[in-house]
Every structure is written in structure tokens, then in C-alpha cells.
Amino acid sequence: MPDRLGPALTAPIVDRLVIVGLGLIGSSFARAARRMNVARTVVAADASPSVRARVAELGFADVVAPDLASAAEGADMVVLCVPVGACGIVAEQMAGSLRPGAIISDVGSVKGSVVAQVQPHLPEGVHFVPAHPVAGTEHSGPDAGFATLFAGRWAILTPPEGTDPAATERVRAVWEAFGSNVEVMTPAHHDLVLAITSHVPHLIAYNIVGTAADLEEVTQSEVIKFSAGGFRDFTRIAASDPTMWRDVFLNNKDAVLEMLGRFSEDLTALQRAIRWGDGETLFNLFTRTRAIRRGIIELGQETAEPDFGRRKPEA
Ligand code: NAP
Fold first, then answer.
1. Residue with CA nearest ligand 1 atom 33
2. Does the beta carbon of 80 lie inside 6 Å of ligand 1?
């Protein structure tokens, strides 16, 4: 998949686009919207006065709204880019200002919980099309975003049953303008797939870095000095935003626990193979996993570079 942005749209897809939460994802969304001429007006709204001030300085939004209710007035599309646990309260604060026909979307890493939190607050005639860009970095805040973050990556849409197909197509058009490939699935299926591809790997990284930090017989300086032996790659993931990831685990509890159960069983089998000197089991697994890594590279979701191929923001 190409990881560059194409030419800007000749006509915007939405008039007033409101982005709530201008962190890594929200500010990347705003920058991409600006670059690709996706909206006539980009409005930024954030609970934090310091984030609002920084967004005004960075200049990637046309308007920085003083509060959520005024931001929502006259909006054609509102995209919630706040931590998953904050989506319900944000929807509640904006609901009274939303006009019929407006589209609400989000970028949360968990979908079932966001649907349950947001939907009860939405007035009649407001369309809800949840989304999740499978793209990110370990950085946070409005300075961390960049316009090409979503290019060549997947965006998963999870419209609840009965959603107006025209609203889903409009949200799809926005992600496609950002260079994403779009897939549609149910919220429950999304949460199961992401539990194993994203949530459990993050938990493992947090855990292994925590374990290494607590070891008594190995010093902290040795952990840092010899980190190139595999540990370093876990530390990148374990540097991810604590609020965001706390909310992911609290809001995707069932799927994460299900996948962790499977993971623990497989880990026990590996433990047994090591204990009994069963090299064949180890070799066979490592051969299969190497093939999976090659498959990911071939699909264009990764490169063979040792830094995991994380793209740097375009200058
Ligand atoms: P982030 O950089 O921490 O940005 C979140 C922003 O939302 C911050 O500016 C925060 O302000 C603001 N915020 C928090 N609560 C709010 C509220 N109640 N009302 C208005 N603004 C509020 O986080 P992020 O990485 O962009 O993540 C945002 C969303 O994207 C999350 O739902 C996450 O699951 C999803 N996502 C993240 C990634 C990733 O790799 N990071 C990838 C895909 C999807 P404060 O700083 O004052 O708290």
C-alpha cells in the first residue's frame, strides 16, 4: 500500500469538520484534512487549555473552539479523538448542539465500548459511524501528529446496525482521502481482532519492561546497555500513552482476557518444551513465526528495517 498522500481533493467532502482531542491522532487527522482539502473549515476542540493554545500556535485548524458545545454547533462531521473512556462524556457535552444530519465518528482503539457510551446520547437524525485507524506511534500531544500517519494503513469502520449507508460512505471517503485502506466489520469482531494484534502485544511489552525494571540481580544500567538484544523494541511499545492504554484494557476487558488465556496456554507449552529440551517444537514455532513476519512485510504493513520501519513524519 502506498504510504504517501496523493493530490488534494478538488472539492471538500464536509463543510464544518470538528475534531475533539488534538493529540497524536486528532492533530494528525486535522493536518491530513487540511493537506487533502477534506473540509472547508477545520474546528479544533480540546478540554485542555494548554493543548488549545498549542493548536492555535501550530495553525493546522481554522478555528480553536473555547468549549465542546460551541464547537459542535453547525458541524457536518464530528470526530472524537479522545481516550476511549472519555467518549461518552464528550458525546453528552456535545449532543445538545448537534443538528440533524450531522455525522459523529471517532478513532478509538476499542469499538464495542465506544458504541455503548456514545449512542445513548445522540439525538434523532444524527448518524454514528465509529472508526479506528490502525496506525500510530508511541508519542502523544498536538506536536506529535503528522499528515501522512494514516497513509498506507488500515482504517476499520464499525457502523452499528441500521446506520445510514450514505453516512458510512462519507466517513470512508475521508479515510480514503488520507490514503487509508478501509474495511468494515462489527464492533465485536473488531475488538477480538485488535485484542490479539494490538492490545495483548502492548500488555506483554508493558509487562516485560516492568519485570526487567524490578529485577534485583540485574542492574538498571545493564538493562539499558544491552537492550539491543530484543528488549529495546518492547521499550518503544511500552512508552505508549498511559491514559490511552489504561482505557483500552478497561474497555476491551472480555476480548483481552480471552486472548490472554490462549496466550498463557501457548506460553506454558513453550515453557515445557524448554524444560524438556524439545528443540523440534521450538524450531517449528520459530519457523512459522518468521514466515508471518515476512507476510506482514510483503503486505506493505511493515518494512525489514531494524527500527520496525516506523515512518518518520514528513519534513
Ligand atoms: P493523546 O495524544 O493523549 O490525545 C488525546 C487528547 O484528548 C489530549 O489532548 C487530551 O487532553 C484530550 N482529551 C482527553 N479527555 C478529553 C475530554 N474529556 N474532552 C476533550 N478533550 C479530551 O492520545 P492519542 O494517542 O491521540 O489517542 C486518541 C484516541 O486515538 C484514543 O481513543 C486512542 O485509543 C485512539 N488511537 C490511538 C492510537 C495511537 O497509536 N496513539 C492509534 C489508533 C487509535 P489532555 O492532554 O489534557 O488529557
1. 108
2. no
Cell output for 214: 524490578
The protein residue with its alpha carbon nearest to ligand 1, atom 7, reads 21
- Rounded-to-integer distance, Cα 89 and Cα 187, Å: 20
Measured from the CA of 144, which atom of ligand 1 is nearest?
A: 2
Q: Which residue has the higher pLDDT, 228 or 115?
A: 115
Q: Which domains does the chain have, with CATH numbers?
A: 14-185 (3.40.50.720), 189-298 (1.10.3660.10)
Is there an atom of ligand 1 within 6 Å of 105 CB?
no
φ, ψ (nearest 5 deg) of residue 52: -60, -45
pLDDT on residue 293: 85
The pLDDT tens digits of the residues spanning 177-213 come to 999 999 999 999 999 999 999 999 999 999 999 998 8
| Closest to 86 in 3D by CA, of 118, 55, 112 | 118
Look-up of cell digits 504493513: 301
Nearest CA to ligand 1 atom 41: 136
Q: Is the CB of 107 under 6 A from ligand 1?
A: yes
Which pLDDT belongs to residue 309? 45
User: What is the model's pTM?
Assistant: 0.92
Residues recorded for the chain: 315
3 state SS of 175: helix
**Quick one: which of 57, 1, 6, 5 has its CA closest to 27?**
57
Q: Is 26 in the pocket of ligand 1 (CB under 6 A)?
A: yes
- Which letter does DSSP use for residue 100 in this model? T
Q: Is 21 in the pocket of ligand 1 (CB under 6 A)?
A: yes
Our answer on whether the CB atom of 136 is closer than 6 Å to any ligand 1 atom is: yes
Compute the 3-state secondary structure of the chain and give helix, strand, coil in percent, each to the nearest 5.
50, 10, 35
Which residues 6+ apart lie within 8 Å of 125 measured at CB?
100, 101
Q: Cell triple for residue 228? A: 539491543
Rounded to the nearest 5°, which phi and psi values hold at 22?
Answer: -100, 55
pLDDT in tens, 209-259: 999 888 877 777 888 888 887 888 899 999 999 999 999 999 999 999 999
